[in-house]
Amino acid sequence: MTPQHTNETETITRKATRMALARKKHRQSAWYGLGMFGLVGWSVAVPIVAGTALGLWIDRRWPAETSWTLVFMLVGVALGCLNAWYWIQREGRDD
To answer: Alpha carbon 43 to chain centroid distance?
Structure first.
């Protein structure tokens, strides 16, 4: 083969490889971003609401000096943040 044919072959191979990679890689739509935003929001909100509800129930059932509502709400915030971090890390690995 002549050097010109070699360069053309390499160019065609490179372009075909790029095209194959582009087909494999799915572009994320705006709906995907909104869905991920909602997923992270729910993963934070649900533990906070559940912790607050549990704390209110404990406070009504066994009154004490300690506000169990506040304690379990903070526990819910911590769990929610960890849960959101997990989901964001998981999606980052998929890219």
So the answer is: 9
Residue range(s) defining the domain that contains residue 50: 29-94
Residue positions counted in the chain: 95
Angle between helices 30-61 and 68-94 (to 10 degrees): 160
The tens digit of pLDDT for each residue in 24-82 reads: 766 667 777 777 778 888 989 999 999 999 999 999 999 989 899 999 999 999 999 99
Q: Is residue 69 part of a domain?
A: yes
81 CB neighbour count, 10 Å cutoff: 14
pLDDT given at position 95: 52
Asked whether residue 84 is assigned to any structural domain, the reply reads yes
Q: Which of 26, 33, 20 is nearest to 95 (CA)?
A: 26
